[in-house]
Design a protein that fits this description.
The protein is α/β, with parallel strands linked by helices and 433 residues long. The chain is built from eleven helices and 15 strands.
């Protein structure tokens, strides 16, 4: 395996590079967190907001300073391109999303952009022009925090979303998606169209947003798959009645039945074991009054697994058990499935290369499943894709308390640089076409 920093070079050099990357990443993320800094201590950078626009423009300038060719596409995805000798060959793309949740942290998404910029700058410094074009992408949107749509940036690139996808969508203030996009300076016919058919591979470096790597004291997570998700809206209908005059055995208590259902969902998920997870995340009662037996209860169920067949079996058996519980309690059950996302495996060759990089340089790692959705699952639709995790302190994310140490960030960037070298500079790049 040809490498930009070889396994025979000193461990000191590897440590020195990782330390440098980590310190520079801290500076870059601190700077970027000023765009959308929230008085509550976090970052709020919603799609097409003033903070979002300022961040993308600032990044464009920073990319230009690094000697990259800067291009915005029609929906606001930002590219910094390092043109290769074989300019006709499909590009290697790396990056993540620039948007945040409301009052989120400064690492989610944007770490992958900062990491890509730092890795590419070092590759230019050490090796100059690549054989194949390498592109850094700051994706317009992933979170769905402003409009009821996720993966607008990567989905537009991969053909999952188009202009029809945004029709009728408005934010909480009644601003339409198209109005917001045009106000930010995008959506113009003269701007480059978003769909791409010239990407050879995509790599996304991201914080784990979970507790596994930290608990296991590991540096790198090599994502083997992104879980499938099925989400259900459940409605339990009983009979509202007086809390004092209705005997316990004569009640049709919608909440009591729902409580049994929630317990059964949890117990079934525990029996099934990892990586399956099932969550009841929202609960609503009618009439929601202290002295009235609940006549109706609504709740949501989110089920995730990296195996579609096992996911389907669990959901089918879960719904059957909920119906049985409804019968025992004398209530009616209705449900609808409002999300059905299939599991997305990452590319086996890229995962193998990532493992080899870690092994050669003595970096602790493990293969793992991503329990959260990411832009990588969109890119896997059109090209070989890899996803690499670094630890998150206490597994906290989507919060001002989100944190990843500079050491862990630097290690992740070192791994990314090795992969970009393999794909962009080394002879190995021919193997991913």
């Amino acid at each position: 395996m040809e490498e930009w920093v070889s396994a025979t070079e000193s461990e000191y050099l590897v440590a020195e590079l990782s330390s440098f990357f980590g310190q520079e990443a801290e500076r870059l993320l601190g700077w970027l967190s000023s765009f959308g800094a929230d008085p509550a201590g976090g970052v709020t950078r919603l799609l097409y907001s003033e903070a979002w626009t300022a961040a993308q423009l600032a990044l464009a300038e920073r990319m230009a300073q690094a000697g990259l060719t800067v291009v915005f596409d029609r929906v606001g995805n930002l590219y910094g391109r390092l043109i290769g000798e074989d300019s006709d060959a499909p590009s290697i793309v790396t990056g993540s999303h620039i948007d945040t949740v409301r009052n989120g942290g400064k690492y989610d998404g944007v770490y992958g952009i900062a990491a890509a910029l730092l890795a590419v700058e070092q590759l230019i410094k050490r090796h100059g022009k690549p054989r194949r074009t390498i592109e850094i992408v700051s994706l317009a949107e992933e979170e769905g925090s402003r409009f009821p749509m996720t993966y607008w940036g990567s989905g537009s690139i991969t053909g999952f979303h188009n202009e029809d996808s945004i029709e009728g969508l408005t934010d909480a203030d009644g601003v339409t998606f198209r109005e917001a996009m045009e106000a930010a300076g995008f959506g113009k016919s003269e701007q480059p169209a978003s769909p791409r058919s010239d990407i050879a591979a995509f790599i996304e470096l991201h914080i784990e947003q979970g507790i596994v790597l930290e608990r296991e004291k590991l540096s790198i997570g090599i994502v083997s798959a992104i879980v499938g998700q099925k989400r259900f809206a459940i409605e339990v209908t009983g009979q509202a009645n007086h809390a004092g005059t209705t005997p316990m055995l004569m009640r049709r208590d919608a909440l009591a039945a729902a409580a049994d259902m929630v317990r059964s969902i949890r117990e079934a998920a525990v029996r099934c074991g990892a990586p399956l997870v099932a969550t009841v995340g929202r609960l609503e009662l009618e009439p929601n009054t202290p002295n009235v037996i609940p006549g109706k209860t609504r709740f949501t169920v989110d089920v995730r697994h990296d195996n579609e067949e096992k996911l389907q079996v669990f959901c089918r058996e879960m719904l059957g058990e909920l119906e049985a519980i409804a019968g025992v309690n004398g209530v009616e059950l209705t449900f609808s499935r409002w999300m059905d996302a299939k599991p997305v495996p990452m590319d086996g060759l890229l995962s193998t290369w990532t493992e080899e990089v870690c092994r050669r340089h003595g970096l602790s790692y493990q293969h793992m499943v991503s329990g959260a959705g990411h832009d990588a699952q969109m890119f896997q639709r059109i090209c070989p894709t890899a996803m690499v995790f670094v630890p998150s302190r206490d597994g906290i994310s989507h919060s001002p308390s989100e944190y990843t140490s500079s050491q862990d960030m630097g290690t992740g960037i070192f791994v990314l640089a090795q992969l970009l070298y393999l794909l962009g500079y080394a002879e190995a790049y021919k193997g991913v076409v």
